[in-house]
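Dear colleague,

Following up on yesterday's call, I've attached the two folding results inline so they're easy to grep. Please treat them as preliminary; we haven't cross-checked anything against experimental data yet. The first protein's sequence and structure tokens come first.
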Amino acid sequence: MVGARWAAVIVALAAGAAPRAAGFASVTREEAPPAPVVRPAAGGVDQGGGTPRPLPRIEPEAPDRALTLRANRVRVVIREQVAVVHVEHVLQSNVDRILQARYLLPLGARAHVTGYAIWEQGVRLEGELMDVARAEDLYRRVTEQEVAARPDASGVTHEAREVRVARDPGLMRQMSPDVFDTHVYPILPWALKQVEVTYGELVAARDGRCAWSFPFHLAAAFGEPVGEVVFDVTIEDAAGVQDVACPWPGARVEQEGGRARVRFEAGLVAGDVGPFELTWRQGLAPLQAAALAHRSGDGPGHVLVRVAAPPATAPDGAPLDVVLAVDASGSQRGPKASQQARVLAAVVDALRDDDRVARLAFDARPTAVDPAPAAVGDRRDALRTWPAGLTGKGRTLLAPALARAGALLGEPSPGRRRLIVLATDGVTEEEPDDVLAAARAVGARLLVIGSGHDDDPELLARLAEVTGGALWLPGLGERDLLWTVVPPDLLGRPYGEALVAGDEVAPGAALLDRFRDAAVTGVVLDDPSGTLVDVFAPAVVPAGGSIVFVARYAAPGERQVTFRARVDGQPVDAALTLSLPAVQEAHAFVAGLWARERARELLRRHPWGPRDPNRAEVVALSLEHRFLTPYTAFLSLPDAERRRMLLGARPPDRDPWRFESAATPEAETWALIALAVAAALLLERRRRAVPARAAA
């Protein structure tokens, strides 16, 4: 997918001569290092068994480069906007010492690793999924090597260090919602080592056009051209595949009906060519829907539902109608209030003169300073300094404040977009569900500004998420809404240390520009019969994109459901008929997608760690449906090491993420048929004169 957060997988990341990262202490052993190995001749064939078949080496341009990327092969099947990606990286050692390599793989926010393997002595060592603590302990016991500490933030790391004992496991863990970490060991002197990773992800769409990308440009981290580059992408969609495009010179596109194939093969490709990108148009018209279902027995079934969202009512970059809603309760006194005031001043600085702003202070009751949003114009200084003059008193009630903010915004105005900037620590006596319901009812997106200390992070994150917004904590910047939002040591810091200097203190225009773009929010698939349970969907998608729901169903049969959403704040709905099969052995990946979304939901309810009450369920979902979580890890071990560690036989290979090769778009079962929803229905909704809500 295009965009940093939806990047596919970072290409190879282990590079030589980089300093050791924290947690990579040197390993001291009494054994003497192995004798130097004679360097192979230029272009010689590697016989070390670290690849499926012997491959000729490539000669690095820089003689001091410890590791180079011999091959980057990516094979992808994309069906109904679900991508399963298989990546092969072949690393080449250019030194006469044994190395351990570690690298991070940043994936998209809704991606999930489903397979991992390394090659040793000509044998593919499939990774076994197990509890992460057990995997880390076995890795240390086998290799006597340390594993890196979990990083606090995602990024690219380069690590290749000399070790003394050659054992041969591989370890892969999940470090954060979209970053995965692998240790590859050993990389023998002058040898090749193949690492394989399989992952799945949902492909995003905007204005009816899907986009998938692989950030090949990050291969430039090696400083050398990649010896062999292969991309082989198959796209299938029962709704049709049209206008496939790939900007890479030399890429071949073959297209027929509902299927397309894109292939690229070359040698010695530099990373500076940019990411490998594909775009295509899927055939669903606005408010049309289609689905795939899976049910293998008497238990619950799983269904994936795609709905094409309506187009936007205004172009991207529209001006904003904003309410600054600031918590002035007793818990906000002192440094917390001053920190929030500084962040709010930065928000005001990022506004445009044609934006309109109203102010609202609240504790147990909301008090509006302005009768309605008015143009920023020459009010900027007054808006900047206003929050600093508020004094904290009383208790906090968020639901009435959100309702009053919605009343100040009024109904959506043509050509404008609505935003509530909610500055609060989230500490309230209200039921969280009541607060979230109030946020949904407003129909505006929320930029939630925490205090950076002593917040209710789960409630703040949920407020941002259910409205398709963002969460900002002073001193910490924009926080990930998928897992824990506060570093675990934050509550132990003095207030002054919670705020740090730098860009993270001040959200700028780039963050506000996100709210200026057309978006679909508040998506719901309503089933009055209660057959659909645990329905998961993205909180926000681009207007004209595709909304992908995954859900369980309790019983087969036809069900009438209703799709509801807001496009630029305007309500839109469509009646749909859902046909749920009693038996459908194909599409097992749909059950895996649901399980992964369920695990994500559980992980964001509590900070992940040993005290997470949902840990057991997350692990069970991971092991049953084979995908990586922060509580599980893939460990690759040869049979000799398995016997030595008394681990028993290797479990049989199982790939629930495999697409059935016999299936074709024409043979796919369309489990969902949209009823005739005329465009006039949508236009009529937008023409209705809805009285503005009375001010509270």
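Below is the second protein, in the same order (sequence, then structure):
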Amino acid sequence: MPKTKLVQPESVEKVSSIYSALRHKKPVTKKDLKNYIKVFLGVNVPDKKICPEHYSPMDYLWFVFRDAYCVLSDTKKHDRENITQYTRRDTHNQNSDCIVWANRAGGKTEIAAIATLLDCIFKPKCQVRILAGSGEQASRMYDYLVDFLYYGFEDFLAKPPLKTKCIFKNGSSTEVLTQSARSVRGQHIQKLRCDEVELFDEEVYNAAKFTTQSKNGIVAGMEMISTMHQPYGLMQKIVSSGIQYGTPIFKWCIWETIEKCIDRNCSQCPLWQDCQGKAKNAAGYLNIDDCITQMRRASRAGWEAEMLCKRPSRENVVFDEFEPAIHVKDVSFNPNLPLYRSLDFGFVNPFVCLWIQTGEDGKIFVIDEYIRSRATINIHAQELKKRTPISEGKMAATFCDPAGKSVNDVTGTSTVRELRSHGIEVRFRKSGILEGIELIRRAIRAGDGKSSLIISPKCKYLIEAMESYHYPDMKSNPNELPLKDGVYDHPIDALRYFFINQAKPAKTTARRY
């Protein structure tokens, strides 16, 4: 038998010393960070981007670890340019805010826990807070963190972890916040990780926006992490705002997190419709058979929202057949077609004006929008006249909310009268909400399957409203009336007044006050 070579105690001690030193060494590249996590935490974070418009979980982790100061230096040039558009910051306004939109079982919570551990051990005096849509969800991230600490990171702690807080020797700490405005207010920390924000109380979320503060050389950052369940939910608003203001959005789906497919016949695989061979290049951890089972359990809408991150389920949306790919096209003013305006009044709620043209073939083109809150009618009137491409005398008509005829007790006049004093003649017709909604639905898709409604991409608020206008989340809604949420209902109301008045012009009212 071959002789077994004994390892000398001093060799074991030397290896242990090197291992400990490496644990304390801060990773300097994305590859170093991935290897660090794999070696010391036993987690192989997926780092392959499969869908062209997505990112990998490792991209998010590297971004927050580096505090958004730099572009990913060790990615391919194409990816580097792609990420630059999300990470570019004005030099006077740098922060590490980001949005994570990912699939169910996509590792969001566990990866955010890893980011929290890295922040606390490599960034002295870093204060991290965990806020989740429920106490159970917040505990999950904290439990991941505590579990990771017992992978050999006990020496970094100042004392044993508490139920909702752990303190590190370098002055860093992590604490779980409860889902209440009182818990959030008064916090002044560098990092706030919001998990499953789709389930947040909006008041709590609004209070949380003011908690982060850069200090001790650490850039402040608020991370909003969630699956998107509803097209009108909080996550949808956060993503829309992120696109508008350039907040980095790290989006990944099942294909970035599924295991590599090796020996399956694609033509016989239930996932083929969505996969199209993507899993052959994957490098994740989700079991393929588990994913197939989940797909069979779920509705198509649920599967697309929860796992493919395509779009939320539209089961409760009023205009579920509205498709931007079909109904949103570049259209501009045509001097050969009649031009209409349609108004919905508001002060605290927005004042809305839509510019609409109609073609001889029945096509309806919404070419522009104006939406503004907290401005007087004279300001609105000036803006309407300035943005209308023809003179008032050449307008086909301006339609409005019948409530505009009511006299205000304070001013002693009506909105209709004020507009008329500025040379804007308005017409209106009383109608029910459902009557107007049915006319809009008919324009989106008539009985023969054809669509007559085209909206310019300039009308971003109207487009968002068409996708998000929804019914109340309640089992009993006998009147089937959509929710008046103060956000999406106003652009829809303006569109509704056009359809009501244009469909039955003979009953339209034009009064002088």
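For the second protein, one point worth flagging: Residues 9-23 form the longest helix (15 residues).

Best wishes,
A.L.
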